[in-house]
């Protein structure tokens, strides 16, 4: 399992200058996680193109109002990375976690463009044998089990895609929309990680830092990683 601490302040000038030339796309860009990722990337000098169904509510330099399922090879051609921030919550739309991710994979198949997926915490393992997940726990809310199952299914299908340079990033169990931007996090792997205070918690803002760090580094191709507040 990957396990180390990252601090945003440690990034040097060289890394920043390299990031300036990076071109990324953020898909399903109207959501709150996507907005944090876009803001973080723009602040680091990335050239960001956002794709969303609704009117522009992002800080991206370029915005294209277009549904994820209508995106084509031409739309995503030439980007260094594509961030998939798609989310579905109702019973009839949950299967779209799989269909949307498969659509993006088909578009990026065989290219050098990396696909980074905003994932879920329910599929993180809680034992070394990787036989039990967070969502299997008795204290996991029943209301969220269908969502966790749909996202786990999509992740399982993503693991079969050897033709795409994907990275799946799971947040901590307590994923806080309005949490502070502390600038430091612990990077984990397939298993649920707790910090020194026994917490599994991360803010959207710090998750965005981890996401953009991974875009810059490209260290975990065809891997699932996870993040928790340091």
Topology:
Elements: E1 4-7, H1 13-20, E2 23-27, H2 32-43, E3 47-52, E4 62-65, E5 81-84, H3 96-108, E6 114-118, H4 145-159, E7 165-170, E8 174-176, E9 184-188, E10 201-203, H5 204-217, E11 223-229
Parallel strand pairs: 2-3, 2-5, 3-4, 5-6, 6-7, 7-11, 8-10
Antiparallel strand pairs: 1-9, 9-11
Helix pairs in contact: 2-5, 3-4
GO molecular function: oxidoreductase activity, acting on the CH-NH group of donors, NAD or NADP as acceptor
InterPro entries: NAD(P)-bd_dom, NAD(P)-bd_dom_sf, Polyketide_Oxido-like
Domain NAD(P)-binding: 29-212
Which characteristics define this entry?
globular; oxidoreductase activity, acting on the CH-NH group of donors, NAD or NADP as acceptor; two-stranded parallel sheet; Rossmann fold; alpha/beta; 230 residues; NAD(P)-binding domain-containing protein; 9-stranded mixed beta sheet; 5 helices; NAD(P)-bd_dom
Model description:
There is one protein chain. The protein is 27% helix and 23% strand. The chain is of the alpha/beta class and 230 residues long. It has a single domain (12-229), classed as NAD(P)-binding Rossmann-like Domain (Rossmann fold). Strand 6 (114-118), helix 4 and strand 7 (165-170) form a beta-alpha-beta unit. Helix 2 (32-43) crosses helix 5 (204-217) and helix 3 runs parallel beside helix 4 (145-159). The longest helix has 15 residues, at 145-159. The radius of gyration is 17 Å and the shape is globular. The two termini are 17 Å apart. The model is unreliable at 10-14 (pLDDT under 50).
């Amino acid at each position: 399992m990957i396990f180390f601490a990252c601090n945003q302040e440690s990034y040097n000038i060289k890394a920043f200058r390299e990031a300036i030339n990076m071109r990324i796309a953020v898909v399903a860009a109207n959501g709150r996680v996507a907005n944090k990722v876009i803001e973080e990337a723009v602040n680091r000098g990335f050239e960001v193109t956002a794709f969303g169904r609704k009117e522009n509510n992002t800080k991206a330099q370029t915005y294209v109002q277009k549904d994820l399922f209508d995106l084509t090879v031409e739309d995503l051609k030439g980007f260094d990375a594509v961030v998939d921030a798609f989310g579905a919550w109702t019973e009839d739309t949950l299967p779209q976690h799989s269909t949307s991710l498969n659509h993006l994979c088909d578009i990026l198949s065989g290219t050098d463009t990396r696909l980074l997926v905003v994932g879920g915490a329910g599929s993180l393992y809680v034992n070394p044998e990787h036989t039990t997940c967070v969502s299997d726990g008795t204290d996991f809310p029943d209301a969220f089990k269908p969502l966790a199952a749909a996202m786990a299914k999509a992740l399982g299908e993503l693991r079969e895609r050897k033709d795409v340079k994907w990275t799946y990033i799971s947040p901590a169990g307590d994923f806080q929309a309005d949490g502070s931007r502390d600038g430091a996090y612990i990077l984990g792997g397939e298993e649920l990680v707790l910090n020194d205070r026994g917490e599994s918690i991360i803010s959207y803002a710090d998750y965005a830092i981890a996401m953009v760090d991974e875009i810059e580094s490209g260290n975990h191709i065809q891997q699932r990683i996870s993040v928790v507040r340091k």
